[in-house]
Amino acid sequence: MKYHPKFKIWLDNKVLIAKVQGSWSQQNAEDFARELKAAAKPLLGEDWASIILLDSWQLGVPGIEPIIKDLVSWKIERGLGYSAHVYWPSIVKEFQLDRMIKDIAGRFKVQKFEHPDQAFEWLASKGFTTNNQQKLAID
User: Fold this and answer.
1) Does a structural domain hold residue 2?
2) Which of 54, 48, 76 has its CA nearest to residue 7?
3) Is the pTM of this model over 0.85?
4) How far is it, in rounded angstroms, from Cα 119 to Cα 23?
5) Is CB count within 10 Å lower at the N or C end of the chain?
């Protein structure tokens, strides 16, 4: 059986962009954490930001929560200052995201948006511009 990752991660200047999809198992979260850390290496030691595109994400098993909490702490300790989360309003999705992120949100700024353009504009206002926003339309 061929493995199909439930995420795509790329860098655009000092912005790490991740598009996640589907229902997540603990293995999906572990794979995401490992690949995000590898993708973020060029940003370490600098201030950086992230955009997480969550519209196609369908929640995860409870076992993903400590993995994502640890990943968020790792990112903050390594220079993440701003994170934009993009998804259409969903109480259930927001509940699980808050369980993974809310406890440490005071250490960096998290903002929720319904449209990617809003997220890019917010990060640009914080000094984190990108060159390839149109990539979102292709993916």
Assistant:
1) no
2) 54
3) yes
4) 23
5) N
Q: H-type helices in 102-139, by residue range? A: 116-125, 135-138
Q: How many domains does the chain have?
A: 1
**Residue type (1 letter), 6:** K
**80-86 and 109-113 strand pairing:** parallel
Structure tokens at 59: 């929640």
Identify the CATH number of the domain in which residue 33 sits.
Answer: 3.30.750.24
Q: Which residue's structure tokens are 């493995």?
A: 3
pLDDT, tens digit only, all 139 positions of the chain: 455 679 999 999 999 999 999 999 999 999 999 999 999 999 998 999 999 999 999 999 999 999 999 999 999 999 999 999 999 989 999 999 988 887 566 778 999 999 999 999 999 999 999 987 655 544 5
- Report yes or no on 1 lying in a domain: no
Secondary structure of residue 105 in the 3-state scheme: helix
CA distances from 102 to 33, 67, 68, 98, 139 (A): 18, 14, 12, 5, 29
> Tokens for 132?
């390839």
> How far from 136 is each of 8, 18, 44, 51, CA to CA, in Å?
11, 10, 24, 11
